[in-house]
From TrEMBL:
Protein name as it appears in the record: Glucanase
EC number assigned by the record: 3.2.1.-
Active site feature: 124, 162
Family: Belongs to the glycosyl hydrolase family 6.
Length: 719
């Protein structure tokens, strides 16, 4: 392992349910429900004063190495200086010496260290954090050295995250070996470390059923040590984890203690486990009332793997981008959930309630009864039958549909018109509503106006996701669109389609990913008046953001990456034959980061004939795109076209018809491009190298430009 990865953190895992229990029946069939006896050991909390903050954690080292970075102060105070665990996971290291040095430093400081032992053979079932000891004998030697290193010093140890919860990936022989090794580990800590509280990892709140996990814990020797750990590297709320902890404790006979990892559970879980967006730091390490301790076991900012919003960042590598997401509660500009306090009061003074305990059994019933200014409060849950809206509100009197206590999920209905179908109507607002599993479109608005989609989600559709046609004055704020265009290139429309006569559209703070066609598509609109900004768009077939035969479009402050098709750019500008006007005009592309796409970072394409004119490409960062920074497949452009203050990481670009100046080539000094951090490092050649003529007044972080003598080149302004 590299120095940067030596405290190799495992990934949070996708919860498994009954299938795990069924897969382990043979192994545990003989176990009886004998109550676990509490182990008496010296209390390490009584001889220390608070928990130990690792001075050499990945975030701490990063802050020392990047003191001038704009996020350094926040990462220092919110993460690096807070107590958390150090992971030991390298079978080739002198673990005894490393553990001894670490626990000795903590005792000198009078603090209680948190350690994680993570080296079992077949670790992580070969996933992002796969590896571990080469054999059981090697593991016993490694673990014995770990315990020897602690000696009589006070410590808290979490033993082998996921080891019990992931038994299902093993053969019966491997399961027996793993149980034996975990029992060996428990015995080592119990016999060698009188001032250590050790906890076997027990998965998360939504994984193995409590009784079955208690069964596994008994076999693994939980009765020899302090107890068990929950939520390691996962996102479930403390309340959910406490409920699971109480259930397991009850199944164990009531004597075991448990701890909960709160490092990243501030916003709870969203069903994803690998670098999901919209997550937030949880409460710092502390003693607790229900759980014995709430601990930062996962190191915030360390990647779960090459996935989610950490695409391109290997497991265990620290990323300031991921860290800042956790501090802010989501990617920059991405509001994963709209706080329920943001639901405006009904202008009419009337709220219609749907669901358990409500007046209406279905959303459709409430929609049919709603009048201008009403709110429709929908209890969190799933509602079949789709939703068809034939009437709306009135000027400044929205009918607002919102989920109460969680998302209101709409299924079924007529997918050809949209699972949520909005006809020729107006003044409608949706907050915390999801369209899921549509046989056609997720949601479609045709001929509508004054629409707001806030914290809106489309979770799977055969055709397009959110389709807005011939509509005006539309705001899409904090959405998530995924799993759309499931029928592939034969699907109608795109993940988010905006056009065909639409005007006055703003899309901001959205996450659009893993769709079978384009991500966000503005098309066939001669007067779009569209702003597409502060979005995270990735892992679509591509392009991630697309403007086709439209005029009056601004694309700014977006991060786009990992298109899947080699012909698809991160951002695409095109004139297709389907358009009647075959004209693209007055399009501005600025402050975007486009990296790691299968095609170019920015692509120009004309299907047969038409015109492109007045395109401005200013202060963007392009890096690691397989077909170069710019792909130019058009016969020419008209009007005034500009390439200025861009970073072309893949090589110089100067297509015909463009004024090109103040652009940088290659890596001018990024903070850490391997971690997708394209801020400018101190001393970067791009600092003060741009021109203010035509440059935006702010950068990708929405901070003012310039901050120094002149505008910087690229999407970010140095601070």
């Amino acid at each position: 392992m590299t120095v940067g990865d030596r405290f190799f953190p495992r990934t949070g895992k996708k919860p498994r349910r009954s299938v795990v229990v069924l897969g382990a029946v043979v192994v545990f069939a003989a176990v009886t429900a004998t109550p676990v006896q509490a182990v008496t050991a010296s209390n390490p909390l009584a001889v220390t004063d608070g928990f130990y903050a690792d001075p050499d954690s990945n975030p701490a080292r990063w802050v020392r190495e990047n003191p001038e970075h704009p996020d350094a102060a926040a990462i220092r105070t919110e993460i690096a200086e807070r107590p958390g665990a150090r992971w030991f996971a390298d079978p080739g290291a002198d673990t005894r010496a490393e553990v001894s040095a670490y626990t000795s430093a903590a005792r000198t400081a009078g603090k209680l260290p948190i350690l994680v032992a993570y080296d079992l053979p077949d670790r992580d079932c070969g996933g992002h954090s796969g590896g571990g000891a080469a054999s059981p004998a090697e593991y016993r030697d490694w673990l014995s050295g770990f315990a020897d290193g602690i000696a009589d010093r006070p410590a808290v140890v979490v033993i082998e995250p996921d080891a019990l919860a992931q038994l299902d990936c093993l053969t019966e022989e491997q399961k027996a070996t793993r149980i034996d090794l975990l029992s060996f580990a428990a015995n080592e800590f119990a016999s060698k470390n009188p001032n250590t509280w050790a906890y076997l990892d027990a998965g998360n709140a939504n994984w193995v059923e409590a009784g079955e996990m208690a069964n596994r814990l008994r076999r693994a020797g939980v009765g020899k040590i302090r107890g068990f750990a929950l939520n390691t590297s996962n996102y479930y709320t403390t309340e959910e984890s406490v409920a699971k902890g109480k259930a397991i404790t009850g199944a164990l006979g009531g004597a075991a203690h448990y701890v909960v990892d709160t490092s990243r559970n501030g916003n709870g879980a969203n069903g994803e486990w690998c670098n999901p967006a919209g997550r937030k730091l949880g409460v710092p390490s502390q003693t607790s009332g229900d759980a014995e301790m709430l601990l930062w076991v996962k190191v915030p900012g360390d990647s779960d793997g090459d996935c989610g919003i950490g695409t391109g960042i290997p497991a265990g590598k620290f990323s300031p981008v991921l860290a800042k997401h956790l501090i802010d509660g989501g990617p920059r500009g991405f509001a994963n959930t709209a706080p329920r306090g943001d639901v405006p009061p009904p202008a009419s003074g009337r709220t219609l309630t749907v669901g358990e305990g409500g007046r209406y059994g279905t959303i459709q019933q409430a929609a049919d009864a709603a009048q201008p200014g009403d709110n429709v409060e929908i209890a969190a849950g799933t509602y079949a039958g789709g939703l068809r809206l034939e009437h709306g509100g009135a000027q400044d009197r929205y009918i607002t549909f919102y989920g109460k206590g969680g998302p209101a999920v709409v299924t079924g209905g007529d997918g050809d018109r949209g699972q949520i179908a909005i006809g020729d109507t107006s003044w409608l607002r949706f907050i915390g509503v999801t369209a899921a599993g549509s046989a056609g479109f997720g949601a479609m608005a045709n001929g509508a106006d004054h629409l707001v989609f806030q914290d809106f989600r489309v979770d799977g559709s055969q055709d397009g996701g959110l389709v807005v046609l011939g509509s005006r004055d539309v705001l899409v704020d904090g959405c998530e669109i995924s799993g759309t265009n499931a029928r592939g290139t034969s699907a109608d429309h795109e993940a988010m389609s905006l056009g065909e006569g639409s005007s006055g559209i703003e899309v901001r703070g959205c996450r659009v990913h893993d769709n079978g066609e384009e991500g966000i598509d503005v098309k066939y609109d001669d007067d779009a008046k569209a702003k597409i900004h502060d979005n995270l768009v990735y892992d679509n077939r591509g392009p991630n953001i697309y403007v086709d035969s439209s005029s009056g479009v601004e694309i700014y402050n977006n991060t786009v990456y990992a298109t899947k098709n080699e012909t698809k750019a991160g951002i695409g500008l095109a004139v297709e034959d389907y358009s009647e006007s075959r004209k693209l005009d007055n399009v501005s592309v600025y402050n975007n980061v486009s990296y790691g796409n299968a095609g170019a970072g920015l692509g120009f394409w004309m299907e047969s004939d038409g015109t492109m004119s007045n395109v401005r490409v200013v202060n963007n960062t392009f890096h690691g795109n397989k077909k170069g920074s710019i792909g130019f497949d058009v016969p020419g452009v008209d009007g005034e076209n500009l390439l200025r203050n861009n970073i072309f990481g893949e090589g110089a670009e100067s297509p015909d018809g463009f004024t090109a100046d103040h652009n940088a080539v290659g890596d001018p000094g990024f903070t850490d491009p391997g971690a997708a951090d394209f801020h400018l490092a101190p001393g970067s050649a791009a600092i003060d190298a741009g021109t203010g003529d035509g440059a935006p007044a702010f950068d990708r972080d929405n901070a003012p430009r310039p901050s120094g003598k002149a505008v910087d080149v690229g999407a970010y302004e140095s601070r």
